[in-house]
Amino acid sequence: GPRVSGDSPQEIKEYLEKQLAQVTGLESVKGMLRSLCRKMVVDQQRAKFGFVNQQNLNMLFLGNPGTGKTSMARVVAKLLKHMGVLKRGHLVEVSRKDLVAEYSGQSAVKTVAKVQEALGGVLFVDEAYSLKHQDAKDSFGQEVVDTLVAEMENRRSELVVICAGYTKEMGDFLRTNSGLQSRFPNVFDFPDYTYPDMAEIFTRMAEERKLRVDPKLSKDRLVELMAQSIPRSVASRGNARAVRNLVETVLTRQTDRVADKGTVSMASLLTLQEEDFPAVGDGAAAGAAGGPPGTPG
């Protein structure tokens, strides 16, 4: 069986908190992960006294695209490695195109190969509902699903599978194989980011590029600028992506502003100011995120 981690429950908890601190928002998901972690720690302690741990750690991550599911899957992989549940703790990301082949029998081969690659870590199946098309007789997709179920069964001590996708479509997907539902007991709902979350993500993305948000901009004002620049209708189609596009738009406007000034200090080259955000109604705001302006909800 998997080795038992030598770390104290306190140390494991601190390790998890350090990882979670790097992920914006998602408090409900973090809470569920904390409680799963506590249960695993207790099970590891029980195992010392002969308790047979048969806990299934496969997970469903439900929600819209761009809501931090991949980042959270990385946290899970690191945590499970840290706790000695997984040997390598790497993340292998796949979607339909990586698993479905064009000839009969080949999809099973591709799927087994990806499972092999993920052994000792986490296999993250994004948009998992697209593996099996609902309407048509999608025999290659069915082959992938059936192979995945069999592999999960045979390799259950060496692999954790996380399937991600929209809530409704994932419900339909679980019905494509009677064994699927029971194999994913840990269900996490990923809410859309709020505007305060987006403000935090904006600051983080800017900092990754060595830019900074003008310290004169209050947190509350930055949140207002998010709501102004990213209509709700756009936000729900890929939250983090909308923020990334906004960083680009703001940087472009900042570049134009700085370019007109001639020689400028390093600070002004790297600082994003309020005037660099697209003004309400100037079209760039909605355009930045690729869609008609909606009413922020």
UniProtKB/TrEMBL annotation:
Gene3D superfamilies assigned: 1.10.8.60, P-loop containing nucleotide triphosphate hydrolases (3.40.50.300)
Domain AAA+ ATPase: from-to ranges: 55-194
UniProt key word ATP-binding: yes
Keywords from the UniProt entry: ATP-binding, Nucleotide-binding
GO molecular function: ATP binding; ATP hydrolysis activity
Keyword set includes Hydrolase: no
Tree of life domain: Eukaryota
Database matches in SUPFAM superfamilies: P-loop containing nucleoside triphosphate hydrolases (SSF52540)
Pfam family membership, one: AAA
Family: Belongs to the CbxX/CfxQ family.
PANTHER family for the chain: AAA-TYPE ATPASE FAMILY PROTEIN / ANKYRIN REPEAT FAMILY PROTEIN, AAA-TYPE ATPASE FAMILY PROTEIN _ ANKYRIN REPEAT FAMILY PROTEIN
Designated name of the protein: AAA+ ATPase domain-containing protein
Species of provenance: Hemiselmis tepida
